[in-house]
Amino acid sequence: MKHVVCIFVCLLMSVSVFAQDARTSAETERAAREEALSAREQAEIRIEQDMVTMSNLVEALSKNLGQMHFLRTLCRGNNDQKWRNKARDMMDVEASGDTARRRELIRAFNAGYYQEQSRHTQCGQAVLVDAAALAENGRHLANMLGDPFRER
Asked: How many CB atoms lie within 10 A of CB 83?
């Protein structure tokens, strides 16, 4: 009978420890989700505040593409030129034949690139959070630029 009681007590203790571990795991997951959400919100607020300083939508998109270019090359290597190529294509459309305008857009692209270079030195979760927020901002800018009634 002593063995049965001992086994029963051991089972109760292990169930209690298991329940405590499950709660700790759930709390850890919840805290991680909250931290990720907070980081994303902070990145979005920082990007929105930065966009206020831009003189127009095309410049803002150019800067956004420069930021995305740096983050992508940081994580995927210098051979990945996706966002630089997109910026060049956009500049071909928006500054066709206007060298002064093209220089302004290149300046904005480079400012975005160097801004992110000063913030990140290696690819990690913070880069992924910023890239997601910048991608969302880029989508908004592209939609606004595509509006046929926008002021030029």
From this structure: 23
